[in-house]
Amino acid sequence: MYNYKEEKAQTSRVCEHPGCREPAEHRAPKSRSERPDYYWFCLDHVREYNKEWNYFNGMSEDEVERFQRDAPLGHRPTWKHQMDPGMQESILRSKLNAFLGGKSSGSESYTKPVPRRLEKALRKLELEHPASMKQVKSTYKKLVKQYHPDVNGGDTAAEDRFKAIVDAYQLLTEQYGDYAGHE
Ligand SMILES: [Zn+2]
Fold first, then answer.
1. How far is the CA of 90 from the centre of ligand 1 (A)?
2. Average of per-residue pLDDT across 87-93
3. Domain 114-183 adopts which CATH fold?
């Protein structure tokens, strides 16, 4: 039998702002990636969050709304700012982490922008900057197993993926140490 109350309790979200217990009906992107993850907030906290976000992105209210609406479709918003994107992202992250009471990925003390080639290598391992070297290693181990030619019966796409993962990991072990996040 259909139980509305139970269904509702299972799917309702609580605002992710520390200490807040309001129902969260509004989402906000965690980062500026093309397929962002979202935080869920109550109305008050999504407004605060958007204010921080706007300030550090130089985006208008409209642009943020459009971004939140279109991002899942892969639309890339127009960013109007001069600063180095890596630097901007790290400032934005530390601001947003502060807003969230220092939760999320533990990257709040992070300020060093990462070179594009390393950022790309991270993405090949399905990670985002700043990842820790430990995360890089464990994700690598998982992915090489998954895409290993022996378990994919000559699937060339998996083989290409496997090579890309090995190359990315090699680059990261050589060059990412200085940029990596802490545990
Ligand atoms: Zn809230």
1. 24
2. 66
3. Helix Hairpins (1.10.287)
- pTM of this prediction? 0.42
Sorted by where each begins, the domain ranges of the chain are 13-113, 114-183
Mean pLDDT of 58-80: 54
Find the length of the chain. 183
Q: Output the CA 50–ligand 1 centroid distance in Å.
A: 13
Q: State the alpha helices, DSSP H only, in 58-155.
A: 61-70, 85-99, 116-124, 133-147
Are the C-beta atoms of residues 28 and 49 closer than 8 Å to each other?
A: yes
Q: What is the per-residue pLDDT across 43-55, written as a single tens digit (0 to 9) for each?
A: 888 888 877 776 6
Distance 49 CA to ligand 1 centre (A): 10
State in Å: Cα 45 to ligand 1 middle. 5
